[in-house]
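FAQ

Q: What does a record look like?
A: Structure on top, sequence underneath. For example:
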């Protein structure tokens, strides 16, 4: 993640510098949606979820928010069609948008056969890129004839130097030129060409990533300021490094042109380049999708209904909490049996843990579950709390320090004098999340290894039976048959 760029765009966004912004949508009567709300809390947002969770529905509803303008736009009927097999009625789409200092709300409805719109609609350029963009050129309507019959060019249009450089960076190879040629057999079917060190190659022979990215760059080059860009499966045809670079390019473009970008994805590489507020997880339940904000990339892309099930899930904030919970349970006489029946899953910030605990307590998840919050968080339905009243790193480090660091010198195989110096230096840092890595840098071990060793030693030295049993008893209550 480009932290500097994320900070810049976040500061500008929170300062109100996007004059047009789709803030939220509400969907009822479409594909299992029963009035759920999806909020967009960052200029570039990724919608993630398993197949059929509702990602494409969100993108299409968002695309229909504004009145069509010359630069681009869509009606709901462009996406949601009545067919011989599908009759849509009692559909209600709600919107809240920002226009300057105003935040109007309105609804688009389809009570029976026709869509009805509010008297006043708001204009904005909307640009939709669906998965059809990944089709090979010769499989696209009209291009097979171009491939067979073209004998020359009527005209050519070059990609700007700036966007060609962005394309080169995203794909990791240098292009001397990028242009679109209008063939003599059909000027309305331009063909993209890229020039590399060995010569020029057309989209008929480019790699899938080159073909898709070249078309996308051409379209984005022309997008006006303040527009809404929507991209389905943004990672399609791109390798991991290119996915990361494309998302960072979109963030930069959004900031420079005050553009709003909404994408769908199945890629952890995309999610890792975005801050928590830019990740929206759609979690299917019997009552329609549940919308979870800020989920970790790992959790957002982990299915909860795999063929081999744990009997219950324990949701925690991050890997540090996962290790600590595991070590706490392991100290219980029944710990080994318990661990074989559950899966501890890091899901993201405390709000996500609380949401998952609440959904599990209400029986809205495929399997039983329990949220385990850090000790510095308030109590929440469906959640237990970790020992102490602080973040895991602070509790473990500072309580071990009160016990002269226990037997850590034996566990690490380092003299107590040197090790204690490294540990004392680490806790001077205001960023407690870095304490394990600061120690690891000194003793040549990974931060994960340091944390696992310290969590184990804390459980041996500091863990009270009452605190251990409180966590274990909470886990037992969610197991279907008990212990």
């Amino acid at each position: 993640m480009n932290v500097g760029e994320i900070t810049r765009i976040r500061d500008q966004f929170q300062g109100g510098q996007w004059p047009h912004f789709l803030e939220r949508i509400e969907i009822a009567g479409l594909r299992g949606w029963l009035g759920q709300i999806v909020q967009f809390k960052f200029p570039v947002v990724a919608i993630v979820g398993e197949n059929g969770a509702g990602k494409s529905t969100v993108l299409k509803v968002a695309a229909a928010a504004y009145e069509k303008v010359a630069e681009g736009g869509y009606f709901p009927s462009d996406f949601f069609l009545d067919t011989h097999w599908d009759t849509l009625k009692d559909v209600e789409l709600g919107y809240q948008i920002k226009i300057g200092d105003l935040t109007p709300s309105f609804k688009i409805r389809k009570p029976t056969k026709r869509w009805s719109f509010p008297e006043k609609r708001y204009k904005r350029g909307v640009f939709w890129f669906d998965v059809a963009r990944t089709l090979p050129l010769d499989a696209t309507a009209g291009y097979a004839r171009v491939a067979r019959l073209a004998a020359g060019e009527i005209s050519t249009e070059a990609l700007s130097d700036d966007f060609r450089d962005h394309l080169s960076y995203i794909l990791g190879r240098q292009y001397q030129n990028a242009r679109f040629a209008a063939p003599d057999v059909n000027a309305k079917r331009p063909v993209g060409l890229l020039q590399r060190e060995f010569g020029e190659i057309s989209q008929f022979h480019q790699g899938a990533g080159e073909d898709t990215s070249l078309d996308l760059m051409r379209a984005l080059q022309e997008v006006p300021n303040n527009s809404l860009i929507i991209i389905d499966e943004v990672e399609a045809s791109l390798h991991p490094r290119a996915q990361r670079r494309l998302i960072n390019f979109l963030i930069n473009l959004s900031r420079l042109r005050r553009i709003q970008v909404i994408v769908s994805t199945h890629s952890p590489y995309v999610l890792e380049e975005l801050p928590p507020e830019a990740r929206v997880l759609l979690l299917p339940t019997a009552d329609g999708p549940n919308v979870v904000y800020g989920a970790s990339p790992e959790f957002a892309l982990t299915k909860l209904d795999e063929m081999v099930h744990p009997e219950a899930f324990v949701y925690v904030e991050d890997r540090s909490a996962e290790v600590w919970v595991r070590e706490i349970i392991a100290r219980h006489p029944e710990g080994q049996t318990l661990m074989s029946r559950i899966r501890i899953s890091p899901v993201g910030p405390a709000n996500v843990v609380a949401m998952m605990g609440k959904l599990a307590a209400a029986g809205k998840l495929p399997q039983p579950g329990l949220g385990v919050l850090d000790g510095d968080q308030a109590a929440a339905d469906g959640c237990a709390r970790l020992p102490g009243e602080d973040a895991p790193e602070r509790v473990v480090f500072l309580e071990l320090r009160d016990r002269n660091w226990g037997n850590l010198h034996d566990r690490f195989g380092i003299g107590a004098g040197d090790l204690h110096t490294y540990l004392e230096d680490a806790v001077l840092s205001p960023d407690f999340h870095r304490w394990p890595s600061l120690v690891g840098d000194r003793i040549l071990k990974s931060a994960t290894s340091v944390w696992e060793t310290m969590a184990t030693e804390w459980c041996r030295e500091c863990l009270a039976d009452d605190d251990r049993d409180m966590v274990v008893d909470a886990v037992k209550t969610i197991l279907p048959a008990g212990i």
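Q: Is there anything notable about this one?
A: The longest strand covers residues 20-28.
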